[in-house]
Each structure stands twice: as C-alpha cells, then as structure tokens.
Amino acid sequence: MKVSKRRRGNPNLLTDSHRRAPKQEAELAKRTGGRVTAGSGCGNEKGDVRVRGVLRIEAKTTKNKSFSVTRDMVQSICNTAVAYGELPALIVEFLNAAGKPELEIAIVPTYVLNSIISNE
C-alpha cells in the first residue's frame, strides 16, 4: 500500500480504512476474477479492480456510519469503464468498531441494472 509522506512518518495516522483498502481490493479482484489496478488507479488506468472487457470497480472503505458519493467520483469511474466497454461500479465497504468488514454495497448507474435485467 502506498502511504503518503505525512502518514509514513507516523504509523498511528493510518486509519482502519487505510489498512483495509488493499485487502478489500484484493478480495474484490479474487471474487470477480479480475485484477487489482497497479497504483490503485492513480495512473492512466482508473479504478481499483478491473475485469477486462466486463467491469471496472472503484473500491471505498469507511468506518463512518455514512459515506458520501459525489458526481465526480461516479463520473470518473463511468468515463473510464465506458471507454473500454466495461460496466462501472463503486463498492463501499462499511467497517465495524473493530475495523472489520460489516456491510458491503455496490453503487451503479441505472443502465447497469438495466443491462443485468435484460441480460445484455
């Protein structure tokens, strides 16, 4: 996991969410038959997990009771996925007080649901 300079000097600044993120991405890649994107999408290839030609996933994890999804966040993964003929998804994992996964949800544009329903 790449750690910012500010956090590198003090491991106590790493949150449960930061520690969990690489594990979440690896588990998503294994479950979907995809691969984790190098650099967690910070380079030319966006998204955290990719199933080539099928799916592009942006993974998020939080210990908070809520998670805000922004248009920019959704637009970024959608633009990349559509450019490669893939379906976009934002996966949010909620952690419990002990930092363990408790709930995982997928956020997708409605056209993805329509595609699943019509088996396209």
Description:
The structure is a single chain. The chain has 120 residues and is of the alpha+beta class. The chain has one domain: Trna Endonuclease, Chain: A, domain 1. The chain is 35% helix and 24% strand. Strands 1-2-3-4-5 form a five-stranded mixed sheet. The longest helix has 17 residues, at 16-32. It is globular and about 45 Å long. The N and C termini lie far apart (36 Å). The model has no long low-confidence stretch (mean pLDDT 87).
Spell out the key features of this protein.
alpha+beta, 4 helices, Trna Endonuclease, Chain: A, domain 1, 120 residues, globular, five-stranded mixed beta sheet
Oligomerization status of the protein chains: single chain
Distance between the termini: 36 Å
Q: What is the H/E string?
A: HHEEEHEEH
Number of continuous helical runs: 4
What does the main sheet amount to? 5 strands, mixed
Mean pLDDT: 87
Portion of residues in helices? Answer: 25-40%
Instruction: Say how many strands there are.
Output: 5
Cα radius of gyration in angstroms: 15 Å
Proportion of residues in β-strands: 15-25%
**CATH architect. name:** 3-Layer(aba) Sandwich
Total discrete domains: 1
CATH fold call: Trna Endonuclease, Chain: A, domain 1
Overall shape: globular
SS content category: alpha+beta
Poorly predicted runs of 5 or more residues: none
Strand numbers in spatial order across the main sheet? 1-2-3-4-5
CATH class category name: Alpha Beta
